[in-house]
Amino acid sequence: MMTSNTETQDAPASAVQERSIGDIIRDARNLTTEEVERVLSYQREKGVRFGEAAIALGLVSQDDVLSALAQQFHYPLAAADKRNNNPELVTLNQPFSVQAEAFRAIRSQVSMRIDPTRQPRAALAIVSPAIGDGKTFFAANLAIVMAQLGGRTLLVDADLRGPRQHEVFGLRNTSGLSTVLSGRTESNLIQQVDGVTNLFVLPGGPLPPNPSELVERPAFGLLMRELCSKFDQVVVDTPAAGYGADSAVIAARCGAALVVARKGSSKVAGLQDLVANFEGGSVQLAGAIFNEH
């Protein structure tokens, strides 16, 4: 948090004014001039930040300060009453945590490793050797931090054996990728994530009896090309490689892949086999991540 200066300076009407934490908290909690002076006095006396001083004096809550920080730094923040409903979304629930910062660092690495001039543009498949490696958690949070950059970001749940992204984000799953690939016409398949302006999700849809066949059909490749042309970034969740060739097929249709393994759990042999699937092919491997979540 940053020390507040509640004074404002005049600026041209066209300029974007960055508000201090103190200004945001004052306006959000309707603090009086006397209360602000108490906070500033406590701040000077104790050598703490404005938010910490306001909390210590009982004028605001920790959540008020977190909300003010999110506004100042333009980070999406889940409403307090929704954080328990979506605990896996650490980048949305705790945007200033160590975990959120790690996802932003990974975002930077991914953007440097995927060729932006590639045509057609690549989507990023999140793949893992086994069930429980955390790829769904990883794909969801990576999509959030990608959306924070301002570009339209789409998260596709292509794990047609056990789709979970609709549960993670609290979305409906009556239709989705499986219905599209089955040839059924549906409307409003892509849903916007509440609280994250630029993030959209295409859920997996109802479980199909033939998931492998659906992703191997030409329709899936054509769909990915269309989605990549309409969104700035596309992140794709996939089934674990232990299910078979689904994840490799999906990655090939996407054009790029990021491997997620669980630290202390994933077997080296399984990880090597997964990476070997992409060697010499058309899939650009962006790297491998060891998940501790």
Task: Kindly summarize this structure in a few lines.
The protein has 293 residues and is α/β, with parallel strands linked by helices. The chain contains 13 helices and seven strands. The longest helix is centred in the middle third of the chain and has 16 residues, at 98-113.
| Tally of helical segments | 13
Estimate the strand proportion.
5-15%
Side-by-side strand order of the widest sheet: 3-4-2-5-1-6-7
Helix proportion range:
40-55%
The whole-number mean of residue pLDDT values reads 82
Overall shape:
elongated
Distance, first to last CA: 26 Å
Low-confidence stretches: 1-17
- How many beta-strand segments? 7
Sheet with the most strands?
Answer: 7 strands, mixed
Over all CA atoms, what is the radius of gyration?
Answer: 22 Å
Query: What order do the SSEs take from the amino end to the carboxyl end, as H and E?
Result: HHHHHHEHEHHEEHHEHEHE
Helix/strand/pairing class, anyone? alpha/beta
Written overview of the protein:
The chain has 293 residues and is α/β, with parallel strands linked by helices. It is 41% helix and 13% strand. It has a 7-stranded mixed sheet, sandwiched between helices. Helix 13 links the parallel strand 6 and strand 7. The longest helix is centred in the middle third of the chain and has 16 residues, at 98-113.
Which helices and strands occur, and which strands form pairs?
Layout: H1 21-29, H2 33-46, H3 50-56, H4 62-72, H5 90-93, H6 98-113, E1 123-127, H7 135-147, E2 153-157, H8 165-169, H9 177-181, E3 191-192, E4 199-202, H10 211-216, H11 218-230, E5 233-237, H12 246-254, E6 255-262, H13 268-276, E7 284-291
Parallel strand pairs: 1-5, 1-6, 2-4, 2-5, 6-7
Antiparallel strand pairs: 3-4
Helix pairs in contact: 1-4, 2-3, 6-7
